[in-house]
UniProtKB/TrEMBL annotation:
This is UDP-glucuronate 4-epimerase. PANTHER family: EPIMERASE-RELATED. Residues 14-329 form the NAD(P)-binding domain. The lineage of its organism: Bacteria, Bacillati, Bacillota, Bacilli, Bacillales. SUPFAM superfamilies: NAD(P)-binding Rossmann-fold domains. The chain crosses the membrane at residues 12-27. Keywords: Membrane, NAD, Transmembrane, Transmembrane helix. It comes from the Bacteria. It holds the Pfam family GDP_Man_Dehyd.
Amino acid sequence: MKQKQQRQLNNVYLITGAVGFIGYFLSKKLLDQGLQVIGFDNINDYYDPQLKIDRLNQLKEYDNFVFVEGDLAEKVEIGAVFETYQPAIVVHLAAQAGVRYSLENPDAYIQSNIVGFFNILEACKKYPVNHLIYASSSSVYGSNTKVPFEETDRVDHPVSLYAATKKSNELMAHTYSHLYNIPATGLRFFTVYGPMGRPDMAYYSFLDKYFNGEAIKIYNNGDFANDLYRDFTFIDDIIRGIEKLILCPSDDLIPHRVFNIGNNKPVKLMEFIAALEKALGKSLNENVSFIKEYEPIKPGDVPATYASTNKLEDIVDFKPSTSITDGLQVFTDWYVHYYNKLQETSLRS
């Protein structure tokens, strides 16, 4: 029998992974609207913590922001946050990210993505919330060859531990939503990019390598006729989609739903790289060409990611509007400014 819950009436938003890429932009968006945001993050060193600290310092400028540094895997810590702040909306974005890194450090994925998410669900059960939104991933589609990916597709064959943990999250959320009447929404993200993004992502590392004089590795065997496709989604579009879901009446989302959130316009990897070269060239006012090395596709990677976003569009009118050209230009302009690359280029010349 489902348990009836007395839900929160306040306007407190708990964002886990608040100083991560998506978490930072979402927190800032809500703070700009005058809403109370509790940010939770462990500021780990999976990538350069300085970027996370810089994001955090910007969020700390808001009087309506409270930051809690903690570990998802510590159940008592999570419970204390819920008890103290009584969040009405929880957006759970914290997780150990990365497909390839899951081959090197699987323990981190179990602790953060499985144990950590279990602790979030338990807290939502004990301290009822109006809506739990959590990050899943397009990786759950595994080696699915049917495109575009639809939420009704089978996702029973993940090809990485990271994907397996995200599929597990969806199952766990469905169960808790069913048993305890928790309005829960999972979002399958499709390659989110933009300024202040994750340095472990390929598009970001390509710029790092360019300025270090190193070759970029392209995992498509140099097979341009059968190039990899990716559904790149600009961060502003992602944040608008999440914001629309937050505003969606919770009764429309019970007991549990999963949505793709992507661009619905897949781009060939080589076309993306060409667009990135062009954007960086504009940022630097010079011609840019990456040194390229072609290698076989990596274990855990998939040939194509392509989101059908019809379901989310029907619910909240989600329509990404940022082109690859415009999005990459914003990113490269930020990167050049953040790392003072324009000045370095001037000195070299």
